[in-house]
Specification:
heterodimer, A: about 500 residues, mainly alpha, globular, B: mainly alpha, two-stranded antiparallel sheet, about 75% helix
């Protein structure tokens, strides 16, 4: 059992990227084979991670498949491992990446090779984030993701791509450098950056608040929370479809994961102290960005704002620190990963045909693209959180958790659900129903096989986990219980 | 006489300089020969230094010359970077018609000066070394004498540098006057902060040294000199003297002035902060790549100084690591500059990089890696350099320095990103000539790969510097 399965998950995309790098880019057949290489490696990664999930033992609360190697002598060890929480995010990453690569079509007409390399590197960095068990290693992966994403937005993005890429990069970097200071301080205070050791030692209460804020500055930008969410709509709108998908489905989850793993896990007292702040910001995000989403005339922007609102639910759920709230927010993150990815792909489908993201360009697509209308419907309803979709499970659990903590907060958050239904259904109505006013739409073709394949493979888990969330909940249950026990123990210790 | 063994590398270089001068005078068209011989000289002296026969620490010539782990390592770095400068700029100097015999001899002279500086343990020896390297650098800056900018650079550097040398000398004389000796360890025994003369001397010396590594507020010369000098000389300026100056900084601060740490610590912290902030902000508006590098190197010196400011051994070690990584990154950037050649003309404006990725994917990729590394983005080597510095800084609870430093990293990331944007996002300009010269390609590949893959084995560099114990 000593096969380094996690390291191979991290390394495999890099190897694939290297092979793509050495192929000649001049002729077309090579480019196609480059795409197959990318597809093969990312799909192999998906299979490996499924196998990982299969052999993963959900009844143990400890980290599993731990690998420990000396890296910086006497200072940092390369340590990776998974528990119930991180394994789901790894699965999400490995599922989304091949779909991204499949979705790459003629719209990426320049530098296809580089695009595939960026996506693969992105994948390996994201897997690294979710399984690293050392703060410094975590930081390396967390920040390293900036480079490929910057390039994805900047090279293959839309008209205002430069502005968006810079905004994305600088916002995130500024948030993260404070986290770096915090990580180094933790090293000097506790003598280690190993997360497992830190869980056991606990961090001195007098530093917790400052450290928590430093981590928060990084995660809040990445989540993104109001008021530092402004980079997200820009980045989403300008990024190519595959970039938006990666961004929405996985990148945003890194922060939610960080909140659970670090803010709750390492600084319980500070988390308890800052709960009102998080609740306030989450509620503002839920209500305010829902209103902003209502007013958008750009489809991608609308979905981007809805992401901010959904992530508001996630942060709310995390900081209730109840079994339901935490489980709900993890399910919500997974569900949002699937649904927002699918919604961006849906926008990408019509954008490829019409080269417009404006809602007013469309209307009456139901008669022209019936298959598209059906799939879009499923994802719209999942985004709203209709029972029977994974979105419902997440939001429902989060609201239960919130009600346990505070009636008022939960009530306001519930309003967000209604607003969510309003903007999503209105979007659906304007795009799909009504009369075909725009004559250009008439020559639009329905989904081709690739598009159906991608969207269906996202729809299946969305519906499956909606009806039967047991596999997800079962995986995270013990880890969450353990987390909460540790949390309550630390708080009672310091009272 | 046995002392001669220990200074063999220096003696060898001086003899070679004389020999090469004679060859140059008596043999017509011998620039190529002298160029290769200079490289060979450097390689041989490198071998001599690596094969150093002695024990751990050796004091020579009435304790005025010290050879220890620090000086050996820094000499190796200096000579190695000298070799790479010569190798990578071979084509450039030929095409710019500055391929004279004096060029490589002057570089040898200044390297000799630096070696003396690095080992000096006495104010007089130190000053001799400093002047030897400075005088060679004045001439090198103005080497392209047909170009008015180069002459201007040389003159500017000469005037300002002579002034700073004057300050430095004045500081030395004050120190000598108040402590009664020129020897570093004797000064250390007899220096007291209660005597203002000592503090004044310290300040003058620090100002002079800050000038040599272009730390704010003594940085004024750097952008003009970097821009005006021939690119090969700029490369030399950007990396080699910094190593020697940093070593001297370490020596001064931690041997004779160690007991004045309360006096110099705020000065160094100020220099570091000012350089980091200024380097980050001032580079934003630059249009010329060489000027941009000048400002970026000002910023980078700020980080190296931050490591010195903390007053611990690990701080010194991390500064040395920083300077190593810094000079490899700069070497790579300049290799790319040497490759931007079209019809025998070199280009160094930012606009000339526009859309480089279309026609020159490999150069662009190298630049991308090097620039992200300069910006300090993980997992590239530049990140680790900064990371180590901040580890030392935070160890001493200097949170203000750490946070300002990291925030200026973000600001400076902006202009590095701007260069990347020009390379990758902008429409392409005309194609540049393909580079055929192998030495240049190898230098570029080496520096890029080192920066990219540094994270696989970061302990190597740490082990190298871990032997250095100054305090």
């Amino acid at each position: 059992m000593n096969f380094p399965i996690l390291s191979s998950l991290i390394l495999l995309p890099v190897v694939g990227a290297f092979f793509i790098f050495v192929t000649r880019s001049k002729d077309l057949s090579n480019l196609r084979s480059a795409k197959y290489v990318a597809l093969f490696t990312s799909f192999a990664n998906f299979i490996i991670s499924l196998y990982l999930w299969y052999i993963f033992d959900p009844s143990i609360s400890d980290f599993q498949f731990v690998e420990n190697r000396t890296w910086l002598v006497g200072f940092i060890t390369y340590k990776v491992g998974v528990d119930g929480i991180s394994i789901l995010f790894i699965l999400l990453s490995t599922l989304i990446t091949p779909l991204c690569i499949v979705s790459v079509n003629k719209t990426i007409n320049t530098k296809l090779k580089e695009f595939l390399i960026s996506i693969l590197l992105m994948e390996s960095l994201m897997i690294g984030v979710f399984c690293s068990l050392d703060l410094v290693i975590f930081y390396l992966f967390f920040e390293g993701g900036l480079i490929p994403m910057f390039l994805i937005i900047g090279i293959w993005g839309g008209t205002r791509r430069v502005y968006s890429a810079f905004k994305f990069f600088l916002f995130t970097l500024l948030g993260s450098v404070l986290m770096l200071v915090a990580i180094i301080s933790i090293y000097w205070v506790n003598g280690t950056t190993d997360i497992v050791d830190l869980y056991n030692i606990g961090i001195d209460i007098k530093y917790q608040n400052l450290l928590w804020l430093a981590f928060f500055s990084s995660f809040a930008v990445k989540t993104p929370m109001w008021p530092v969410h402004t980079w997200l709509p820009d980045a989403h709108v300008e990024a190519p479809t595959a970039g938006s998908v990666l961004l929405a489905a996985i990148l945003l989850k890194m922060a939610g994961y960080g909140f659970i793993r670090f803010s709750i896990g390492l600084f319980p007292n500070a988390s308890e102290y800052f709960v009102p702040l998080i609740f306030a910001l989450s509620l503002i995000a839920i209500i305010y960005t829902s209103f902003v989403a209502l007013m958008q005339d750009d489809m991608k922007k609308l979905i981007a704002y809805s992401s901010v609102a959904h992530m508001g639910f996630v942060t709310l759920g995390i900081f209730t620190v109840t079994q339901q709230g935490l489980e709900g927010s993890i399910v919500q993150m997974i569900s949002h990963g699937l649904v927002s990815a699918a919604l961006f792909l849906c926008v990408g489908v019509v954008y490829d045909r019409m080269h417009s993201r404006l809602i007013s360009t469309y209307g009456g697509l139901v008669s022209l693209m019936p298959k598209y209308a059906v799939l879009f419907m499923i994802f719209t309803l999942a985004a709203i959180g209709l029972p029977g979709t994974s979105g419902f499970v997440g939001e429902f659990l989060i609201l239960i958790g919130a009600f346990k903590k505070s009636f008022l907060v939960a009530t306001i958050a519930s309003l967000g659900v209604i607003l969510g239904a309003a903007y999503m259904l209105w979007l659906y109505k304007r795009v799909i129903f009504g009369k075909v006013i725009n004559r250009d739409l008439l020559k639009m073709l329905d989904l081709n096989k690739t598009e159906i394949f991608i969207l269906v493979s996202l729809a299946i888990p969305t519906l499956f986990f909606g009806f039967y969330p047991e596999p997800l909940l079962n995986t995270i249950d013990v880890s969450i219980t353990n987390l909460i026990e540790n949390y309550n123990y630390q708080i009672s210790l310091n009272k | 006489m046995e002392n001669i063994n220990f200074v063999l590398p220096e003696i060898f270089i001086s003899l070679s300089i004389m020999f090469l001068l004679i060859v140059g005078v008596f043999k017509k068209n011998s620039s190529s020969l002298i160029y290769s011989l200079s490289v060979i000289t450097l390689i041989i002296s490198l071998g001599l230094i690596i094969n150093f026969p002695g024990k751990e620490e050796i004091y020579l010539f009435n304790d005025s010359y010290k050879i220890d782990e620090l000086s050996i390592l820094m000499k190796i770095i200096t000579i190695l970077s000298g070799i790479f400068v010569l190798v990578s700029s071979y084509n450039y100097t030929k095409l710019e018609k500055i391929f004279n015999i004096e060029y490589s001899i002057l570089i040898l002279c200044s390297i000799l000066g630096m070696l003396v500086m690095i080992s000096s343990y006495d104010l007089i020896v130190f000053y001799i070394g400093l002047e030897l390297q400075s005088l060679s650098l004045y001439v090198l800056a103005a080497f392209n004498r047909n170009n008015i900018k180069s002459s201007e650079a040389g003159l500017k550097y000469f005037v300002l540098s002579a002034l700073s040398s004057g300050l430095l000398l004045y500081g030395c004389s004050l120190i000598y006057g108040f402590s009664g000796s020129t020897n570093f360890s004797l000064i250390a025994e007899n220096i007291f902060s209660s005597e203002y003369g000592n503090v004044f001397g310290l300040v003058f010396i620090l100002a002079g040294l800050a000038f040599k590594i272009s730390a704010v507020p003594f940085h004024m010369w750097a952008p003009d000199v970097y821009e005006g000098s021939p690119t090969s000389v700029t490369l030399f300026f950007a990396i080699v003297p910094k190593v020697a100056a940093l070593t001297v900084f370490i020596r001064f601060l931690y041997v004779p002035f160690l007991s004045l740490i309360d006096q110099w610590q705020p000065i160094i912290i100020f220099l570091a902060l000012a350089s980091m902030i200024f380097g980050a902000v001032a580079a934003i508006g630059q249009k010329n790549l060489k000027r941009l590098i000048a400002y970026s190197s000002i910023g980078h010196m700020g980080y190296a100084l931050a490591g010195l400011a903390v007053g611990t051994n690990s701080g010194i070690q991390n500064s040395i690591i920083y300077i190593c990584i810094y000079l490899i990154m700069n070497l790579g950037i300049f290799c790319c500059l040497f490759m931007m050649k079209r019809n025998n003309k070199f280009y160094d404006n930012l606009d000339d990089l526009s859309g480089l990725s279309k026609n020159h994917p490999i150069i662009s990729l190298s630049l991308l890696i090097l620039l992200f590394s300069l910006a300090g983005i993980p997992p590239l080597a530049g990140f680790f350099a900064k990371f180590y510095i901040f580890i030392s800084v935070i160890e001493q609870s200097m949170y203000f320095l750490a946070i300002v430093g990291l925030v200026s990293t973000v600001v400076s990331a902006f202009y590095y990103l701007r260069v990347i944007k020009i390379i990758y996002f902008d429409p392409p300009v005309e194609q540049y000539d393909q580079t055929k010269y192998l030495g240049l390609k190898i230098s570029l590949a080496l520096s890029t790969i080192l920066m990219l893959l540094y994270f696989i084995y970061p302990s190597g560099l740490i082990n190298l510097v871990s032997k250095i114990n100054i305090i």
